[in-house]
């Protein structure tokens, strides 16, 4: 695979197409996740070593409501283009800092349909379950940031821009530079918060 350096970072990326720019995880329920050279996705569970790993919900607010709910938030993905947009608006934000496990480039994550499959690298597959619903933790992380990732459109509908959530359908290692391939099942169903 032909590789080239991305911007001034040391991450390499495939020339053209969609790819992973960073991978992150945190064993604790922290807002931000630390970048890693590689993460391992486990089918039906999520990211190995991450606090949100599990068949049933792991996000504390959801566990408090009903701990038996299925975990539709096993993996969190954000597009690197959002980080750039936020930096241009004066917010210092990098990979993993908004709590995502996988940062991508060249994929319109927010425009994907529910059920879209994201093939990451050679083995791992994540099925997109919905939009991340940003909470007050984002505001505590950087004051003013919540208004940048949640807004309203012309008709007054809520627009969520803080990435997508998914479940792991096939496990495998994922690292910066891995290609991302998208498979969208018909019929198209717009993403909703999850």
Describe this structure in words.
One of its GO terms (molecular function) is pyridoxal phosphate binding. The protein is mainly beta. It has one domain: M1 Pyruvate Kinase, Domain 3 (Beta Barrel), CATH 2.40.33. It has helices at 60-65, 80-88, 136-141, 146-149; strands at 3-5, 12-14, 19-25, 34-36, 38-42, 46-47, 75-79, 102-105, 117-120, 124-131, 150-152, 158-160, 164-170, 172-175, 180-183. It has an 8-stranded mixed sheet with strand order 4-3-8-7-13-10-9-15. The radius of gyration is 16 Å and the shape is globular. 37% of the residues are buried.
What is the compact description of this entry?
One of its GO terms (molecular function) is pyridoxal phosphate binding. With 194 residues, the protein is mainly β. Helix content is 13%, strand content 34%.
Number of strands: 15
Distance between the termini: 36 Å
Determine the number of helices (DSSP H or I, runs of at least 4 residues). 4
CATH class: Mainly Beta
Record the strand order, biggest sheet. Answer: 4-3-8-7-13-10-9-15
Here the CATH topology equals M1 Pyruvate Kinase, Domain 3
Quaternary state reads single chain
Strand content: 25-35%
